[in-house]
Design goal:
The chain is built from 7 helices and 6 strands, in the order ββαβαβαβαααβα. With 194 residues, the chain is mostly helical. It has 2 domains: 2-63, no CATH class; 89-192, no CATH class. The termini are far apart.
């Protein structure tokens, strides 16, 4: 059902409707909008396109609406394209997970030369969990080396794996999405001297 050049979006309450309207207004002014979910990204972009059609336009620029992760990736690509220095390669989530798998497998193999595959049957599942944990410590700015009292064997292994993982990133001049916000911040400091 169309009301006042707007299409009703099911199950979107008045506050969300107001937020979407504000985002679309900013997009029409040429702003870039960053939202927290892909669903909201699609809702805002769809509403932007509906409004452009309702205004009688047949061609218009794409809506600059991104999730936070996609926006950071775009900022990094822009930085890499503008930088005169060599810039680290941004790994995909899958590439990062494969490095975690390799690190964990190599670590387990080096500690237990025979029969190691029975000690950790699900290296892929472990790598997924470790990658998630790593994402959390990056998000919250936690230094896992800052905790020395009463650490478990799991934490000790995680630290070993993290050190090896970071070493591989440096060796291959790569960065990952988990700590991308930190890298973008560092790049901004270099560019703008803040």
């Amino acid at each position: 059902m169309q009301l006042n050049n707007r299409i009703e979006i099911p199950r979107v309450d008045a506050l969300k409707r107001s937020l979407i309207d504000d985002c679309v207004d900013r997009l029409r002014e040429g702003a870039t909008v960053v939202v927290d979910t892909q669903r909201l990204q699609h809702l805002v972009a769809d509403e932007f396109n509906r409004r452009m059609q309702a205004d009688g336009l047949t061609v218009w620029p794409s809506a600059e609406v991104f999730t936070f992760s996609a926006w950071l990736s775009r900022l990094w690509r822009d930085y890499a394209n503008q930088s005169e220095q060599t810039v680290s390669v941004l790994l995909s989530g899958e590439q990062s997970r494969q490095i975690w798998e390799r690190v964990i497998s190599e670590n387990v193999r080096s500690q237990y030369s025979e029969g190691y595959e029975y000690l950790l049957w699900h290296i892929t599942a472990t790598a997924n969990q470790v990658q998630d944990a790593y994402g959390q410590i990056c998000s919250y700015g936690i230094d896992p080396d800052g905790y020395t009292d009463h650490i478990s064997i799991d934490v000790a292994h995680f630290r070993d794996w993290l050190q090896a993982y970071r070493h591989k990133l440096v060796k291959h001049s790569a960065i990952d999405h988990e700590c991308l916000a930190d890298h973008v911040g560092t790049a901004a400091e270099k560019l703008f001297g803040t």
